[in-house]
């Protein structure tokens, strides 16, 4: 039996973390983006920062999609 880390949002599209693993990976993604913003030298341009940001967001999206109970789709509440 798989353990789901995320729960689908009640309204809209996407998921919300519900276990410590889901919160941990969300926090790690946020921390990585903040560290990239602080540690990437300003004279190297914004390209390196955006590459790191795109990779982190893509990994978070794939993990949260695979670990969401019920999958992702547009939801209109309790209907």
Structure description:
- The structure is a single chain.
- By secondary structure, the protein is α+β, with helices and mostly antiparallel strands.
- The chain has one domain.
- It has two helices and four strands, in the order βββααβ.
- The strands form two sheets. The chain has a two-stranded antiparallel ribbon with strand order 1-3.
- Helix 1 packs antiparallel against helix 2.
- The mean pLDDT is 87.
Rg of Cα set: 15 Å
Number of helices: 2
Q: Which of globular, elongated, flat, extended, rod-shaped describes the shape?
A: elongated
Overall helicity:
40-55%
Number of domains: 1
Counted beta strands: 4
Write a compact overview of the structure shown.
The protein has 79 residues and is α+β, with helices and mostly antiparallel strands. The chain has helices at 20-39, 47-66; strands at residues 6-8, 11-12, 15-17, 75-76.
What are the salient characteristics of this protein?
13% strand; two-stranded antiparallel sheet; alpha+beta
What's the SSE blueprint?
Elements (H helix, E strand, L loop, with lengths): L5 E3 L2 E2 L2 E3 L2 H20 L7 H20 L8 E2 L3
Antiparallel strand pairs: 1-3, 2-4
Helix pairs in contact: 1-2
């Amino acid at each position: 039996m798989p353990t789901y880390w995320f729960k689908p949002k009640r309204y809209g599209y996407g998921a919300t973390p519900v276990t410590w693993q889901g919160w941990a990976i969300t926090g790690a993604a946020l921390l990585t983006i903040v560290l990239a913003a602080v540690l990437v030298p300003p004279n190297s341009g914004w390209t390196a920062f955006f590459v790191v940001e795109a990779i982190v967001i893509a990994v978070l999206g794939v993990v949260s999609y695979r670990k969401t109970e019920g999958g992702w789709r547009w939801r209109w509440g309790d209907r």
